[in-house]
Amino acid sequence: MVSVPVENSAPPPPPSSSGVAAPPAVPSTPDQPLTSVVSLPTPTSDAAAADKDKKDEPPSAPSRVELEGFTRCSDSLLWKLMMSFYDRKGVSSWSQGIVPHFITSNAFIGRTYARVLAGFIEDCCRKKNDLQSNLALDESKPLYIIELGTGAGKFSFFMLKALNEMAETLSFPVSKIVYVMTDFTQENVNFWLTHPMLADYVNAGQLDFAVFDAVNDKEITLRNSGVTLSPDNPTDNPICVVANYLFDTLCHDIFQVDGGELKEGLVSVGSSREKEDDILDPEIIKNFSNLYKYETIEPSYYSTTTSDSSDGIHLERILAWYKDFFANNDPASTGASILFPIGAMRALRHLSAMSAGRAVVISGDKGNNNVEQFRGLMDPHIAVHGSFSFMVNYHAVGSWFTSQGGFALHNPQEEASLKVSCFVLPGQNSIPDDASNAPFFGDAMEQMDTERAAQFPQLKRAFSDYACDFGPNDFFVMQKGLKEESPNPSLKSVCALLKLGDWDPDVFYKFRDVILNQVCQANAKLRNDLCRGIPRVWENYYQLDKEKDVAFECGRFFYGIRDFAKALRYYTISSETIGEHHVTMHNMGLCYYSLGFLEDAIEHFKLSIGLNKNYAKAASWLEKVQKEVAVRDGKDEKGAGGEAEGAEGGAVEGGGAE
Description:
By secondary structure, this protein is α/β, with parallel strands linked by helices.
């Protein structure tokens, strides 16, 4: 083996040191203050009086075009705009970072949900009590996992992968698990159909797809198998539902408890622009100018709604609970403002009907499960992030399950960007539907949850261990803090984070420069740990965009530790998956040179120049290696001067896309 000359026989310098070029940095702009404070002369008394007169004048109203008059929130234009955004943007909503998604699309959360679901499966297989028996699993029939609002499909990949890796310990045959990725737009389904990381699961019959409007559709037809799940054709096993960052974007209603009265919030959707030619233009979202007003109603509000009348008694019970609780527990008369996730409840009603009312739901979103957070009278906050979202009232969702004989498990952590909850619906209810609401008031529903959850000890323990003690939000905070709060984290701490996150590719990519800067000086044990883990990074890679070339970075790592054969493997993968690039060809030429394959090195330096004729590094190396070949073959007596370039000459190039 011939090695590229490097100083002190060490591996080539890491990124940002003397030899390795990292990807071009995005020009940074210093943070600008929101306002500039300028010292001004003290105004004269006349000027001060004039200024006071101006302050007394009513402010001029900002321009606003009304797009819709006051309407029940769940029926308003808001949700048509939401659908329009995702329908027009498609997968680019995630691949281009328009919608934040890392917190719910990484290897850690996929493994977490798989472990929680495994706890539920274990309890159902034991059949030790009535609730477990009613949810008993038939191993000869499919167990459907329905993911709502799948989006790009990254989470689906991680959860299904984690379940398959648990095959030896799972109490239900993995081959009978059918994961169903759903979304309301065909464009997303088309993307999944062609994604290479999903193909093996499709071929094994473990993965299927469906177009499904979670709020309005009452049946799901699976694209591959042709099976239709519906109330008329219920599943033999309970249905498993996964919903991440979805409930916050499904339709909501708005309520307040003010002076002991229950009030409905009506919304008038408007835009701050003077004119809107297309009322479904997603750009309106950035310019919302909405108005609200509140009118007194009764808790039986939903009993007269056609789409919700079948669920009316349970929805009425929840509204009656809020009215009773805040009317009797509001000494300061602050009132309460309540977002009601009616869209999520409709979706769950439709899905549970496909399995005779038997379901387990795992959901992560931004929201609240502590009713104390609802105190105070205020209009709802709408968060805009390309699309928009509301805070999810997980207390109301849990109450919907409890009212029907099920139970809720909530993570009590309040300071969290992602709240994870789990819900179980057993298909039976010991309390008649026509029972009065009074037995549910106060802390009665919380006690029901505690008693019922105790009958599912494996689920309860798994949820506590993996979703609460250290859950997906904690992992997100840890990796974010290590990146933003530590200018130069140690390689040991980064390696520990990677192991905790099951070698998640996004985490690896985020810390790639730290790894390459320090791996050359790391001890053999730490380097060996990284060498064992880096292949797992690629195994976990689910490509969404070509700007994040994970295979290329894996190649840089192995070149840095002088494992040129493995570096070549990942550079080759990069070329096959992302496309040929002059930097990649140049780095492959260096690998071939270091391995002693001079003709292959020449070929790849030529390929690099063919892709970028102005690429001086490849041209320099081509000339150098051609001279060495000439000397070797006795055609040039002057010699190639192989040592002349020293450490700099052996530097592998960084940044697959300059």
